């Protein structure tokens, strides 16, 4: 997991281009989604984190975004509701 506040914009661009970063998340809300998600683009840089893949986000306790990861969110909601 990478914290936006710790990355220079050139370094961030390089990691995305190399596909080492594929998802973004909100550290405060514990939500992850695509890098192009409208909701994700609106968050403060101080709250933004990045992940290599979905498994890493889940391991760190993040849930899918209801907007850009709709199917994964509905599945998460179904599983979370049954606990």
Q: Can you walk me through this structure?
A:
This protein is α+β, with helices and mostly antiparallel strands and 83 residues long. The protein has one domain (2-81): DNA Methylphosphotriester Repair Domain (3-Layer(aba) Sandwich), CATH 3.40.10. Helices cover 37% and strands 19% of the residues. It is elongated and about 45 Å long. The model has no long low-confidence stretch (mean pLDDT 94). It comes from Chitinophaga arvensicola. Residues 25-69 form the Ada DNA repair metal-binding domain. This is Metal binding domain of Ada.
Number of domains: 1
**CATH overall fold name:** DNA Methylphosphotriester Repair Domain
Specify the structural class.
alpha+beta
| Major beta sheet summary | 5 strands, mixed
Question: What layout of secondary structure does this protein have?
Answer:
Elements lengths: L1 E2 L5 H9 L5 E4 L4 E4 L3 H4 L6 E4 L2 H6 L3 E2 L5 H12 L2
Parallel strand pairs: 3-5
Antiparallel strand pairs: 1-4, 2-3, 2-4
Which characteristics define this entry?
83 residues, activator, five-stranded mixed sheet, zinc ion binding, DNA Methylphosphotriester Repair Domain, Metal binding domain of Ada, methyltransferase activity, elongated, alpha+beta
Short account of what is shown:
This protein has 83 residues and is α+β, with helices and mostly antiparallel strands. It is built from four helices and five strands.
């Amino acid at each position: 997991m990478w914290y936006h506040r710790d990355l220079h914009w050139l370094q961030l661009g390089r990691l995305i281009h190399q596909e080492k970063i594929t998802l973004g998340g909100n550290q405060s809300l514990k939500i992850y989604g695509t890098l192009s998600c409208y909701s994700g683009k609106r968050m403060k840089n101080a709250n933004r984190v990045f992940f290599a893949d979905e498994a890493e986000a889940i391991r760190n306790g993040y849930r899918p975004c209801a907007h850009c990861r709709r199917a994964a969110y509905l599945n998460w909601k179904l599983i979370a509701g049954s606990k």
